[in-house]
Sequence to fold (757 residues):
Amino acid sequence: MKSRLKPLVGLLAVYPLSVIGANVPLLEEIVVTAQRGKQPPLSLFVIKDNELAPMRSATSDTANLLRDIPGVSLYGAGGVSSLPSIHGLADDRLRIKVDGMDFIAACPNHMNSALSYVDPTAVTSAKVYAGISPVSVGGDSIGGSIIVDSAESEFAKPGQGKLVKGEAGAFYRSNGDAMGANIAATLATEQVSLNYTGAMAQADNYMAGDTFKTYSFTGRAGHTLDLDEVGSTAYETSNQALKLAWKNDANRVEFKYGRQHIPFENYPNQRMDMTDNVSDQFNLAYTGKMEFGTLKARAYYEHTQHEMDFGDDKRFWYGAASGGNNPVGGNGLPCSPVSMTCATGMPMYTDGKNSGLNVSAEIHLAQGDQLRIGGEYQAYRLDDWWPPSGGGMWPGTFWNINNGERDRLALFGEWESRLNPQVTSLLGLRHETVDMDTGAVRGYNTAVGAMGNQQIDADAFNALDHAKTDHNWDLAWLGRFTPDAIQTYEVGLARKTRSPSLYERYTWSTWTMAAVMNNFVGDGNGYVGNLDLKPETAHTLSFVADWHDAGKKQWGIRLAPYYTKVDDYIDARCLPGTICTTNKFNALQYVNQSARLYGADLSGHLLLAGATGYGDFTVKGNISYTRGENRDSGDNLYNIMPLNAKLALTQEFGHWRNSLESEIVARKKDISSVRNEMETAGYGLIHLRARYQQKRYSIDFGVENLFDRYYALPLGGAYTAQGTTMSINPPVGNFPQWGTPVPGPGRSFYAGMNVKF
Ligand SMILES: [Cu+2]
Fold:
């Protein structure tokens, strides 16, 4: 019962309709919850299974499930791997846990991002701390936290004997001919539960929109953005998991083995495509109800084997010089799509081993206060090597990261207290030791004078000590004031720290060919690591005001401004010793600078007409503004979502739930000049969705981008999807769209169904 306040808080802005639906928490329950003392922060948004269900037919990208949460935007990447950003902080700057595991992208392009390790059909709960996250769910991050979980093990009810149940679903989406299916089955007694889930999805390249297609683009010289088919957006993925659980009155033990296989996933904003990704996940968890409260422990091990090379779209170069549709090789000679002799390819491998141990206790104190204490240990190993493949890339293996190590040991304590019925406080302290190291490296060619200074760079890197230890202190305080039933205010203060990643610290080659392969923001530039990097430290001040009707049924408005100052923010500068040119891709180096981010989210919902002859009508919306500045250079931070708004009108009528959604995004004009980030034009999209739900089955259908609007993704990066892309700046004219912003998907009809048995 006590957790019912969380959805209430989150739903206020995200899915107010479900508040109106079956899960309306009664006022009595709220009072009960308050007495029990557990008070989730106002920055916490919870999306539960019934809100996730209608979204699953429309996307195979788990991060996309979070898109309607105020303050969340998405960096474009592969079709199932977009990277969530919260208030302008993304990727490694967020703490992202999937089934309690801290995933780390084992790829120099962060292709296998944390949320790509779980299929949307398996996700039954998503929690997003879109603001200050308590230290118990943070650590080694300076932004918010995302906690995604698959279904809890189900057991037979007392006296029921055996529980046998399952469900199956399938979907189709017209744009890109995307399709997929999923099944789940549970066999359980009162004490033991066995569960299997499997899901697969595949898609071809998607088509950009066709309306307003003359896209006025003033970015990289010589290129125009006018694409029908968006190259390198196809994918194929499968996820399977087997879960065995045991419980008695007070204890529960759960073991899960999961295997993900992505045979391929292409990237429109990277020079490489994922050509294989296999991840094995072992996850053992214990939860015990104790005299003092709750004890939780988890041990996990995850092994990722990742391969990259050029996918089909990058292997064949369609030369504009020869009419735009004659395949010619990267060398200008004709190539054969059958023999695939066009580009030699350039295999790159990574192997990541991720082990973790977490123990935490929640202790009930007097007057409903709670004390949470815990420890977390994570040991991460990474190898990243590129076998010889001809051209300049031989005769030996290029070691990008050799025996990389990144170990975290964290301890935290968090005290949730109630001064009086109106005032509560959450205070947490966390210390984290991050140990990093890496071995000696080499280039393809160890000859002195080899292409791209490979040997000179390797010698210089190998001569230095690589071991680094950071001691990071985090502090978070949230104070809440609830004067009466219609308003709540929360102020937050935090200091959060993140140590650099292995790629930020240890990538060493200044050769532009190698540097462009080390890029996890999809901006087309090349990146070189920096051994001198210090951890990023963020100081955040945030405020949330939440007004609603006393029953939280009719209306709600939430305003959440924030300000974050980041010391030693890891930004980029022009690689020392090189000259960076406007309108071209450049080699950059990571560097500590100071930054600030600020903005506000305004969201709300209103029941327009309840219990009419056509059901309940609700309007909900949110507007988000974020600004990111580098205070040292005066530059803008990269990939900050421009002012954007969402507005949705939803009808809930019997078994139907229908909605008309609009998405309005302003022109992106605050761009990072060091990265030659490109402006994107403003746009508006309309989506229509319908869901019919019965007890045993549900059907979803709809159309996204109804008017087939052509637009560029504001956070989609630079289009490098066609042609071989090893040169940092391939000749203009071979492919005119190269280096322009990546277009978003055009109109897509979708339909899906789910059956329970
Ligand atoms: Cu990769």
